[in-house]
Amino acid sequence: AWRGFDISTLGMSPEQCQWAMHRLGLRVQPGAMPQDLPRGPFEVVLLREDLSQCDDPVGLLADCRDVLAPDGVLALMILPADHPVQRLRGYDAPLWSAPSARQWFDRSSLALALVRAGLHPETAFAAPSGDGVEIVLARREQ
């Protein structure tokens, strides 16, 4: 918001929504991805959904693409399976022990999922939170 963006967001619980509205001054509605995704177009969509637990990750990415403005950017936070932090942890990494995980993404399989969803991956960098989380930026295919 301090950069001038008009922010709308989804929160999973009423408590999260109330906290974000009162503490951060954000416009927040309770809901889940993708069925409650607000109508676009948006300049930026930040997706913090865990794709490993998603029934249809390509469909979710396509839903995000559909609400992007023509020059909009999808920012996806992901814990890639081939990240050095995950490799150092080996099979003891929490990534591998999530019983609800349906699939895991490394950088190449995530790039393929983005392309199948009509998005073009542009860059990736370490998230400020660290611990093996990356932020991947992608734009709509023209």
List keywords for this structure.
142 residues, alpha/beta, 4-stranded mixed sheet, two-stranded parallel ribbon, globular
What does the model show?
- The model has no long low-confidence stretch (mean pLDDT 81).
- Helix 1 (14-24) links the parallel strand 1 and strand 2 (27-30).
- The strands form two sheets. Strands 3-4-6-5 form a four-stranded mixed beta sheet, with helices on one face. A two-stranded parallel sheet has the order 1-2.
- The chain has four helices and six strands, in the order E-H-E-E-H-E-H-H-E-E.
- It has 142 residues and is an alpha/beta fold.
Topology:
Layout: E1 8-11, H1 14-24, E2 27-30, E3 42-47, H2 57-66, E4 68-78, H3 84-89, H4 107-116, E5 119-126, E6 134-140
Parallel strand pairs: 1-2, 3-4
Antiparallel strand pairs: 4-6, 5-6
Major β-sheet annotation: 4 strands, mixed
SS elements, strand count: 6
Q: Segments where pLDDT lies below 50 for 5+ residues?
A: none
Radius of gyration: 16 Å
Name the structural class.
alpha/beta
Can you tell me the overall shape? Answer: globular
What average pLDDT do the residues reach? 81
Hey, roughly how much beta strand do the residues contain?
25-35%
Helix content, binned percent: 25-40%
The first-to-last residue Cα distance is 28 Å
Across the major sheet, the strand order is 3-4-6-5
Helix count, DSSP H or I runs of 4 or more residues: 4
Assembly form of the protein: single chain
Succession of helices and strands: EHEEHEHHEE
